[in-house]
Amino acid sequence: MGDSEGSSLSSPLVENLGSDDALSFIKGYGAYGIVGAGLFAILIPVLLSTIFMGKRKARQRGVPVEVGGEPGYAVRNARIPDLAEVPWKGATTMAALFEQSCKKYSRERFLGTRKLISRDFVTASDGRKFEKLHLGEYQWQTYGQVYDRACSFASGLIALGHSEDTRAAIFAETRAEWLTALQGCFRQNITVVTIYASLGEDALIHSLNETQVSTLICDSKQLKKLASITSKLSTVRNVIYFEDDESGTMSDSGISSNWKVSSFSEVEKLGKSSPVLPNFPSKNGIAVIMYTSGSVGQPKGVMITHGNIVATAAGVMSVIPQLGRKDVYLAYLPLSHVLELAAESVMLTAGCSIGYGSPLTLTDTSNKVKKGTKGDASALNPTLMAAVPAILDRVREGVLKKVEEKGGLGKKLFSLGYNRKLSAIEGKWLGAWGLERMLWDVLLFKRIRDILGGKIRFMLCGGAPLSGDTQRFINICMGAPIGQGYGLTETCAGAAFTEPDDTSVGRVGPPLPCCYIKLVSWEEGGYTVSDKPMPRGEIVIGGNSVTAGYFGNQEKTKEVYKVDESGMRWFYTGDIGRFHPDGCLEIIDRKKDIVKLQHGEYISLGKIEAALLSSSYVDNIMVYADPFHTFCVALIVPSHQVLEKWAREAGINYQDFSELCNKAETVREVQRSLSEVAKAAKLDKFETPARIKLLPDPWTPESGLVTAALKIKREQLKSKFKDELQKLYE
């Protein structure tokens, strides 16, 4: 779910999760009596694994269907013949769905926020100061209470003079008030412009002016950023800020005197004292204009209708097993990202509890958590959470790194337990699995699960492709299936979703029940629907989750959105996929990533990057191919820890990391690793970078070199490092 981008959701978390978090469990080996437990663990599988053997029988998950539009190979979800449109009768808009859910679950917990007990600063050895937070337990609002607050906020907006014909924007980090404000706007048929909190100044100005926003809702800390651009915002009249302990007075904020500045609670009080009747939107009304931090040019505003959101919620509801009011969802990804907005809409539909956290306070050892206090996951004990692949990759790397450092019998025991569970998941043996699973969980994996609260039963993953190794690792160590999704902002996150009982990896499942997925031949790239053994082509998505287009950009809208003879809307993704015989989709390429070399060979930059990321030396990579040459090159951000460890063991002397990256022997070592990885991935010689450049500084969303989900911005990287790329070809 959610292939388009969000705010800086990943970088802080990816930096922290997977080091101390990932491996406090190793310290506990001795407590269990490693030798005796290890022998016992070995004995049980040997005696019992032969009871039952065999593979699980695969079932049909998607089936071919005849649809209109451009010829191709189309598939629908096997379980539901008609496209899902609403989660239940009458819930045709987000405003209606919100009101009905809040009344149905009025006394149930809905939104939870942790209380800030204290804020401290610690000084590192190099003199830098780091903020540490002591956070208390979650404090909850019921569905009924949130409904009342949203109604008051909606009335308050009208009292401020906001009219239906003008738009409101939310420019803030994820929190309970974000969702409350969103639902308040919906009750008065106000379209909400969502903007990432990490968006650069120029893109922020562009987004607000293009949509002619009159009311801007933000964090109090964003007021300083707004102060520097007030003269460049032509339509803003009201600014509403979410209070926190640092809000203070707004008189010295430096923002325009032409703006009326109010706190969120002040707007609530105003609305409570002057209630107005709701002005409900229509199914086809624009609920959200979502700006993406796309990889090229200014961000585009995707127009998402109310019907799009409720259709995606209806589709996902049918996929997650036993979803209901007993579930607790940990919300820490940005609500300005379509993945999180869709996920929280699903939770609202099912009556789940949503506890808000932050990437910087997610686990007990996250950067901002005061030592000895709980991180968000430990305090909440969620059953559901979403993640982007970069986060899960870092969890896996951290655990495996500590296991390797432990070595000896501990390493062998971990390997044995991991491989036994892997065999069971892949269906290679089924005997006595319940007993053995409990043994391995107690002995090894419970401590890893405790990092995220110990109760995770299902994870949603989207934003980028998830590697098979990482998916298996999470399945085994967290004991939870991963619903790997595929979608885009342009499809309201809804396209394909793996089902919980699908134990395969590398696929994104069948189409969600709210849409069809069609493959259209791309002859130039060599992908056709007549390919054997599986049809291949550009992925085109049609149905109820396909959005209305790009705001103020008819030319781009007409380029990638098409309406067929029946009136169905289709979105051309630019991604290349293939359908497996059971109706599950696999993403195999992207049209923009394919380059033709001098001798006529086609190479897929994305495919090469995905393969080479498995090198332990590679933290990030961009492969570049000049069509006037016969080989490709690569820019690489190496892993500090791994490279410095190699340097120590190799006796390499250096003053700083930049010097280490520039040493010829360092480049040779990384190049050697890439060659091994490329060979294992069966890349052709011309697909393996012939020359590389090591770059010491990480690529972050703040630098503008990667998106919020940590996908590289190819054009920006090519521009920034054009001299380095040119030298690699000299």
Automatic annotation (TrEMBL):
PANTHER family xrefs: LONG CHAIN ACYL-COA SYNTHETASE 8, LONG-CHAIN-FATTY-ACID--COA LIGASE
UniProtKB keywords: Membrane, Transmembrane, Transmembrane helix
Record Gene3D superfamilies: N-terminal domain of ligase-like
Gene Ontology terms for molecular function: long-chain fatty acid-CoA ligase activity
Gene name for this UniProt entry: LACS8
Organism: Turnera subulata
Protein name: Long chain acyl-CoA synthetase 8
Phylogenetic classification of the source organism: Eukaryota, Viridiplantae, Streptophyta, Embryophyta, Tracheophyta
Transmembrane segments: 29-52
Organism superkingdom: Eukaryota
Signal peptide: none
Matches recorded under InterPro entries: AMP-dep_synth/lig_dom, ANL_N_sf
Domain AMP-dependent synthetase/ligase: 132-551
Keyword Transmembrane helix included in the entry's annotation: yes
Cellular component terms (Gene Ontology): endoplasmic reticulum; membrane
Record bears the keyword Transmembrane helix: yes
